[in-house]
Amino acid sequence: MGPEPKQHPAEVPPGYPREFERELRLSDGRAIWLRPLVPDDSEQLAHAIRTADPETVYRRFLGAAPRVTPALLEHLCTVDYRKRFALVAADAATGVGVGIARYEAVTADSAEVAVAVDPAWRRAGLATALVEMLAEAALGRGITSFSASYLAENRPVRALLGLAGDGKQAIHAGLAEAAVALDRASVTAAVQRLTRDGAPGAAQGPAAPGP
Ligand SMILES: CC(C)(COP(=O)(O)OP(=O)(O)OC[C@H]1O[C@@H](n2cnc3c(N)ncnc32)[C@H](O)[C@@H]1OP(=O)(O)O)[C@@H](O)C(=O)NCCC(=O)NCCS
Fold first, then answer.
1. What is the pLDDT of residues 114-128, one digit of tens each?
2. Pocket lining for ligand 1, CB < 6 angstroms
3. What's the CATH code, domain 18-197?
4. Which of 8, 40, 75, 172 could tie 210 with a disulfide, CB 3.0–4.6 Å?
């Protein structure tokens, strides 16, 4: 999925939350490196959007792919790690990016969440891990609910949102809008499960200093 992401970015913006650099083992045994997004990821993100299959693009953007302009890339890749937060996932064996998840605050205490995982890396819990860790970040930054817009028949998204808390879904013309109140206890338990050393399907974090 394009140029290699840097596991430990050489340059990080102010406020870069290094504690979200983690290693994760998926339920199928493959290892993932997870870290906050940095501006240097823009080339990799541009490649991912341009080469994504039409169904992934349609589901992620609810329509055609956006035009990949420098302004869009700067907007997507410059986050403040508070009101706008994103995590990227890479194949730990090759460094190639395989998933991304973000939230964007819409009010002081609620944020819209979006996630995409490379088709070859699906059904192994990667989106689940990304959303739980985003929820952990959100709760630490005063955000207490997540919302999402998605195709009503997008079953994984419904399952993903159900993870973080109890919520409501409204469907209109095939599009769904859902909002969930983040449940601190269940998010904490999920992240602890993901970061429990050595367990299959576990993450280890925070990560050790890199090379
Ligand atoms: C949605 C998406 C991110 C899920 O990624 P993933 O890594 O496969 O998700 P997970 O493995 O963590 O699975 C999450 C849940 O969805 C379920 N699920 C995953 N794929 C599914 C499918 N094709 N059909 C039914 N359920 C599915 C899983 O069983 C799991 O539910 P569970 O926790 O009850 O077991 C991925 O399919 C994707 O990138 N789709 C295109 C973009 C998109 O739709 N983004 C969401 C809109 S913002």
1. 999 999 999 999 999
2. 56, 59-60, 114-117, 122-128, 148, 150, 154-157, 159-160
3. 3.40.630.30
4. 8
